[in-house]
Amino acid sequence: MALLKHLLLSFTIIIISFVACYSTLQEDPPSSIIYIDHSPSIDDGRTFKNLIKQSTNVLSLNRFDKRSSLKKLSVNDYGAKGNGDADDTEAFKKAWDVVCSSGEAILVVPQANYLLKPIRFSGPCEPNVEVQISGTLEASDDPSDYEDDRRHWLVFDNVKKLFVYGGGTIDGNGKIWWKNSCKRNKKRPCKDAPTALTFYNCEDLTVENLSIENAQQIHVSFQDSVNIKVSGLTVTAPEDSPNTDGIHVTNTQNIQISSSVIGTGDDCISIVHGSKDVEATDITCGPGHGISIGSLGSGKSKEFVSGIRVNRAKIFGTKNGVRIKTWQLSRKSAIQIKNVLYQNITGTSASDIAVKFDCSDKFPCEEIVLQNIDLECEGGDDAEAMCNNVELSYLGNVRPRCNSKKRKAFTTITSIWKYFSWYI
Predict the structure, then answer these.
(1) Is the residue at 348 inside a domain?
(2) Torsion of CA 101, 102, 103, 104, to 10 degrees
(3) The pTM is what?
(4) Same domain, yes or no: 168 and 139
(5) Tens digits of residue pLDDT in 274-304
(6) Where does the sequence pass through the membrane (predicted)?
(7) Of 307, 328, 349, which one is at a domain's C-terminal end?
(8) Are 174 and 131 in contact (CB under 8 A)?
(9) Which of 34, 65, 96, 176 could bond 308 through an S-S bridge, CB–CB 3.0 to 4.6 Å?
């Protein structure tokens, strides 16, 4: 299977309407914007990691005065061994309970290796709670430890004004889960695997300067939360690891993701139903499946995504570039997408078709604008554009362009921007 070789992105995508439709559109959702501006030429993630360290140092200095007045409680003081063999779950629970109930405190994870079973850090908490992870948190690889909740490992639940940071590593230890995935072994049933790190129902959350690796499934998920700042994350897993999305955003509003390097076996960033005002800036993505909105519309559900902005991104070695994925369930129910701007995109494609719009014939894509697009095949030959049921206009220099011939839509994916090797 061909791969995306190199993409230096500078583009804007504006989605004004993005809604699941049933016979007729019943209401107009709020506007949605994806914007990617000019990205510097970066051959690998090292330059971005240096930028991450610099920006993190500045942020840390800004918070120094506040942190100096907070009391520190180490998990070691509550019985954690940190030897990589002993189960430190109960010690972490005890330390969290004290920090959460007292407030004005920092839960400290020193530089050691802590083995943890599934754990939920629940709120509400007293104000000014921080978690400083300097060591490594390693997940239990025994599936029986996840019998009560097969979908989560570390969860922060219902906490306001939480700050999680520290330069440490969260290791999902996912090999046993990947080995038993139906995507690797077709003879096995498809089952959920845990998300390594979940922030659920959180408000005014800051997460920065952490490495998350080898997740059992999704690496980091922000769910049902509001006012989130994420920066300086390094998210990694093998290219063939199944369903290991880097950052997953669902039903979350006002989230900023910046200066992060993501390379996994699935989407670098995935944005799904209910997400609004999502901004991703200075993202290095690859390997993986690119940056995705959706899938949307499964089970005939009405779903909205709006206010998405991607600003400066380098995408390389991925199966997809940037895409919008939807389910088209029948000729009477479909997702409609309209008022979308793709702007300032350059790169090379490992497949002949570099641009693909495959929209519903009943609810076609409308008011799609391409501006300043320059995509060619890997060897320098002209790339092609494939367009079904889409209303297009062009600004500036755009190549490739769709031809005027209409072809019948034939997939369940609608309005897809296809870069490099775009396979669904």
Answers:
(1) yes
(2) -170
(3) 0.83
(4) yes
(5) 999 999 999 999 999 999 998 887 766 677 8
(6) 7-25
(7) 328
(8) no
(9) 34
Residue 179: phi, psi to the nearest 5? -60, -35
Same domain, 148 and 233: yes
Q: Is the peptide bond before 295 cis (omega within 30 degrees of 0)?
A: yes
Nearest to 417 by CA among 336, 352, 353: 353
Active site residue 38: no
Cα 65 from Cα 36, distance rounded (Å): 35
Is residue 34 a contact partner of residue 322, using CB atoms and an 8 Å limit? yes
Bridge partners (DSSP) listed for residue 158: none
**Cα–Cα distance, 193 to 149 (Å, whole number):** 10
Q: What domain range is 134 assigned to?
A: 68-328
What's the CA gap between 333 and 368, in Å, rounded? Answer: 21
Residue with tokens 């008011």: 367
Q: Are residues 315 and 345 in the same domain?
A: no
Based on the fold, state whether residues 394 and 301 are members of the same structural domain: no
Torsion sign (Cα): 10, 16, 21, 24: negative
256 and 360 fall within a common domain: no
Report in angstroms the alpha-carbon separations of 232 from 28, 168, 193, 260, 288: 36, 12, 26, 5, 19
CB within 8 Å of 406: residues ≥ 6 apart: 388, 389
Task: Specify whether 377 is located in the same domain as 345.
Answer: yes
One of 6, 152, 219, 289 is an active-site residue; which one?
289
Give per-residue pLDDT as tens, 159-213: 999 999 999 999 999 999 999 999 998 888 898 999 999 999 999 999 999 999 9
β-strand 17-22 against 333-349: which pairing, if any? antiparallel
